[in-house]
Amino acid sequence: MKNSRWGVILSFLGTVILTLVLSLFVTQIFGGHSEKVSVPKTFSVSLDMTVSEISATNNLKLDTVKDALKIKEPANLSKTLAELNISEKDANEMITKKLNLEAEEATKNPALIGIKFIIWAVLMIYAFIALRRRKITPQFRKYMLLASFILTGVILGSEPNAMSTVKDFVSAYAIKGIIFPPRLVALIVFLLLVFVANKFTCGWACQFGSLQDFIFQIDRNSDKKKGVFRQYKVPFLVSNTIRILFFFLFVSIAFLWSLDIIEIINPFTIFNPTVLTGAGILFILFILVASLIIYRPWCHFFCPFGFVGWGIEKFSLYKIKVNHDTCIDCGECSKACPSMAMEAILKRHRVTPDCFSCGSCIIACPTKSVEFKK
User: Fold this and answer.
1) Helices marked H in the chain — which ranges?
2) Which of 280, 313, 346 is the last residue of a domain?
3) Residue 43 counted as domain residue
4) pTM recorded for the entire structure
5) For position 224, what pLDDT does the model report?
């Protein structure tokens, strides 16, 4: 059965509107907020002020100032900065870094993060088993995508996500001069998952990636090879060049002008509508509309984790592979693949595009020559 164009449009609008409305409803219940907390860049500090005076003058906790200035002996609390050999500039920087770290920690909800990681693990393990056993079907894929963005996005919110581990790691260091250990650990975990199973986090667990993918599936006929509206496979050279340029633009602006340009257009804020900006709304709408005709445009053109993860994909333990002894070169796997990935894998290109392990190629192969394996 084929979808109609009006059916696709209505399904698209319904998906986007319901995602926004339900996300807004959930954030109103649980208190949606921005994870970004502003910290003053300068404080009232002078060389003749003691640690206790700095704390009182700037309305800061004494322990915060003490830890920031690395004061261990109680007797040093009554000493001036001059006596402690700490300059005004260094004191300002040390206090700012400490407050930034405290702000990062204060915005995190360990219980929520734990629940989300458990759900991610369940989704990925279930998908991994299905891929290994060749139990993937278009309907299975669609239901898994729906579960992914509803559970980990609409219900559990925009944060954490793999993209932000890269974005916030760079921006925190470039703008605030800090490295937040929990975020670094999360980034390492996500990259290890890419190493174990090719882009599995992105393909089956990422809330915004799943939303894009779900919208792309809306525009596909029942044969899952063609779109109702014509779908395009952008050459990898084009998409990856744009992604590399965007990544270096993001990093450069963060270091040179202390500005996080991704935060302005962060597409994950669709799951926390209370913090959406005008630019964010326009950009998200553009990405979601583009998702009807281009497979995961945010992931291929802009996502910093997508770029970093792509560098690790080549070394992934489990990935899509072709048994060329039984392959009959019918090209069905390449046609079914929503991107240029399968064509590159089939032709044994040294440089391959992002593969999200969606399993479309496995479904399409008539000789079972395409497998997800070591």
Assistant:
1) 5-30, 51-57, 62-68, 88-106, 110-132, 138-149, 162-171, 181-196, 200, 207-218, 236-257, 261-265, 278-290, 297-301, 304-313, 332-336, 341-346, 360-364
2) 313
3) no
4) 0.87
5) 58
